[in-house]
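Write out the bound-state structure for glutamic acid.
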Amino acid sequence: MNAANYVGRFAPSPTGPLHFGALVAALGSCLEARARRGRWLVRMEDVDEPRCSQKAADGILRTLEAFGFEWDGAVMVQSARKECYREALERLKREHRVYPCACTRRELADSALAPDGATIYPGTCRNGLPPGKSARAWRLRVDESVVCFDDAVQGRICQNLAREVGDFVLLRADGYFAYQLAVVVDDADQGVTHVVRGADLLDSTPRQIYLHGCFGLTSPQYTHLPVAVNTVGEKLSKQTRAAPIDERHPLPALVAAMRFLGQEVPADIRRTTTADFWAWAVEAWRLDRVPRRRTLAAIVPAPIARDADGDADGRIGKPAGGAGQQ
Ligand code: GLU
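---
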């Protein structure tokens, strides 16, 4: 492929402020795109509207800007694209690839669980709604084939969707489209050729590849970066109360994210400006140095300490109290 055809993206869900884990995904996807002289897009994944907010979306973009990220083109926003998801679903309906499902969460409570704790759909409504029941969600019918792909960091990944996931939801019972559908439609519409994101999405990838196949699309190449976890192994997120990164002092967090991704950062770069950091990082970035792990404990710079007169004391990134070793 001509390097100029590379299209990467960062696709945050605006459920809260940008934290270190998301910064790692933003940095890795951006540097890989820039190092390959490609385009890098930002997409606001607010398809799960009840969990997202405009305030969080604005905050994430502001933080990215403060950190010196420069994306190409306008930011795509999922909540404005429901018509595209509806059309995609209608197409799958016409091709009988999806079916309505009446099952409630409670009715599925005794179903087998996948390793990630998700319910494996037992196929209750696959051959028609049970008498007297009405449709709540729409599910994609999966077949028995094994979906495999070669991840640039994690190696070969295979999943038997029928056994490990089951027919999965594309339109949720609450009327919102599922992330799995939105991400596939959006990546295709934006011409994304390379997806670089956190390894927490590794188990979703075979579902997305399967969906690409249903639409007759070629899947992007996938690269799943290690996910930043705290000392007890929880993903840094709003739910685990990860501290937002300090947008007034980008450099310590950028350097920490770089080191988390296995890149050596020379001492002079640790004391430079954000602009110089970027100029250096695009040239220095090596994907093959990224640790081939799904999770990695993060040392996150603590919010910058304040002087007695209220000034932040500059560029010192301190490991968060009790944070684990890399
Ligand atoms: N919106 C997803 C998240 O923030 C990322 C989806 C993706 O990169 O495909 O976890």
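---
The longest helix spans residues 20-35.
Residues 83-186 form a domain with the Rossmann fold fold (CATH 3.40.50.620).
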